[in-house]
Amino acid sequence: MQDLTEKILSCKKCSGLNCLTNKTLVSPGYGNIKSKVIFYGSSVGGSWETRVIPFASWSGRLLDKIFNLAGIKKEDIYLSNVVKCRLPELRSPKDYELENCKEITLEEINYIKPDIIVPMWAIATKVFLGNDIKLENVVYKEFKFLNIKVIPMYHPAYIMRGIGDRNKYFNKMIELFKYATS
Known about the structure:
By secondary structure, the chain is of the alpha/beta class.
């Protein structure tokens, strides 16, 4: 995993990203590399100083609450992003940025060998299911990617804004968190 982390830290494929000057430093995945589930966001959010851990910003606090309800810690599961850099002004990733990071995402999946991939948000979901999906049509449903089960979920920020069924989200996330650590 150290080789993959070094590859992420030294990547220069996207002009202007992964540099201190633009405050676009990278965030390798975080957590238990023996987790049965990988949870993917789209890109590094929050302040650039908190970039080391995916989902460390305000929306990560909702995940922390769900971790507590599930009786686990954040480091018990594996969290990552499909784009490893923090993007300027927290904009959505461009197609070429998703493509440039896809090789690393595939290496990460190959290394961890999860039973389930949980993309959280439409952008992360499109990496695994293709560009023609609408998140509301696929969330909570099961699909396959490289023979691995994929269960798209809403991003915690979506639930925090009062959109979507909070109880259904909490219950599904608790189920996935417990499976990841079983």
